[in-house]
Amino acid sequence: MAQIKAQRGTKDVLCGESYKWQYVEQVASRVAKTFGYKEIRFPTFEDTALFSRGVGETTDIVQKEMYTFQDKGGRSVTLRPEGTASVVRTLSEHGAWGGLLPVKAYYIISAFRYEKPQAGRLREFHQFGVECFGSSSPASDVQTIKIGHTLLKELGIHAVLNINSIGCPTCRGAFQAALKEYFSARKEELCQTCNDRLERNPMRILDCKSPVCKEIAAGAPLITDFLCESCRGHYEALQEGLSEAGIPFVKDPHIVRGLDYYTKTVFEFLDQNGLALLAGGRYDGLVREIDGKAEVCGLGFASGIERLIGAMEAAGHSFGGDAVPKVFLASLGQKGVYAAEKLADRLRRAGIWAETDILGRSLKAQMKYADKIGAEYAVVLGDSEVENERAVLKSMKGDFSEELSFEEIAARLG
Fold it and tell me: How far apart (Å, rounded) are the C-alpha atoms in residues 392 and 59?
């Protein structure tokens, strides 16, 4: 019988590697909380309409990459390809807009996109994201970017911040018209997908991954030449705010992002190979699009956890190291087994990682095991130790050894 293996584009995280994920997730959560964000959790799958309406019918995500299926009730459902639309749906459904603003939420999720698996790109991947609702001020853009900047700094990752403004519906109309005219002149060279986009949403051509379309798009009109007075002022205030915050940036008029809901500010933190480690922007019309009536501004970003871990590994940074047991309680005889478990339980209640033998190994084998798992201390419990309620606590490095009562062992390790 053939062995069953993990699906292509997914990744198993083994016990000896999970500490890296825990480290990144803990740092991300801590950073978000220092800015006043609270964790939000939402379902893995949603009504397909949420993403087609929110993310955009003309995006690659909706057209090519979503895991969509009919459930047993005949309803079209989709595994979430990103987090923002789900956050908006969750907060809208539960009446968050009628409460205290701003609403600030962060999440750590798995997400799903059917893409060609490659370095830093999986079909099941994981994201840390933050979303802020209720502020139209450029100051909130600066603070959101500052969260990402702080996270990367705390993880020891160097990345370059690129920013752009993609305007609002008011100024984007003229830009879309200019794009349509430009791309129409080279229509025969565009891929089939971009030919479809030409009529529906020519901005999406700027985000095409085809090398030919990318080359053509490089000479396209720039959105920054079409910004209305309000969007231009917002963009200038963003730059001034970033400069005041001491966050260096590069203006890149070609950034459009791969989702239709963005307005005004868009940004990316890129590594030395041009890979986006963290990206996001403002989406002032998304709440209305999903909620149907509420007018609430929003902005945020998401960062791929796999990419963050990869960047840290490439730079040789520490993840804090995997935790090791504080003590291994070796046992001889049945009384020793019971005593070891009782002492271990006492230590565990105090939050101490204590290991015992559950394989019935010899004392020599137990001590070899204690050494292999990296235990800091060891205690041997046999009949005499149980009778006297005293045992020798010794350092596995050999620099400490002392006979103590069980009470004293617990106190010393605590």
Answer: 66
Q: At what angle do helices 169-184 and 192-200 cross, to 10 degrees?
A: 140
CA–CA distances in Å: residue 8 to residues 112, 155, 273, 279, 305: 12, 29, 25, 25, 18
Q: Count of residues for the chain?
A: 414
Q: Could you say which residues of the chain have pLDDT below 50?
A: none
Token look-up 């990318």 returns 214
Q: Quote the radius of gyration of the chain (alpha carbons, Å).
A: 28
Q: What is the pLDDT of residue 203?
A: 84
Under DSSP, the state recorded for 207 is G
Total-model pTM: 0.90
Q: How many CB atoms lie within 10 A of CB 189?
A: 14
State the CATH architecture for 18-168+228-314: 2-Layer Sandwich (3.30)
Contact 112, 48 (CB under 8 A): no
Amino acid in the structure at residue 317: H
Give the 3-state secondary structure of 76-97.
Answer: EEEECCCCHHHHHHHHHHCCHH
**CB atoms near residue 212 (< 10 Å):** 13
pLDDT of residue 354: 96
Contacts 24+ apart (CB under 8 A), 404-413: 406/343, 409/343, 409/379, 410/343, 410/346, 410/347, 410/350, 413/326, 413/327, 413/347, 413/352, 413/354, 413/377
State the CB neighbour count (10 A cutoff) for residue 144.
Answer: 24
Strands of the sheet containing 250-251, edge to edge, are 38-39, 103-112, 124-133, 298-304, 276-282, 263-270, 160-165, 250-251
Q: What angle do CA 253, 255, 261 make, to 5 degrees?
A: 125
Instruction: Decide if 213 contacts 194 (C-beta within 8 A).
Output: yes
pLDDT attached to residue 147: 98
Per DSSP, the residues of 257-277 read: -S-TT-EEEEEEEE-TTS-EE
What pLDDT score does 260 carry?
67
pLDDT at 132: 98
**Domains of the chain by residue range:** 18-168+228-314, 327-413
Topology of domain 327-413, CATH: Rossmann fold (3.40.50)
pLDDT of residue 201: 82
Strand 390-395 relative to strand 38-39, pairing:
unpaired
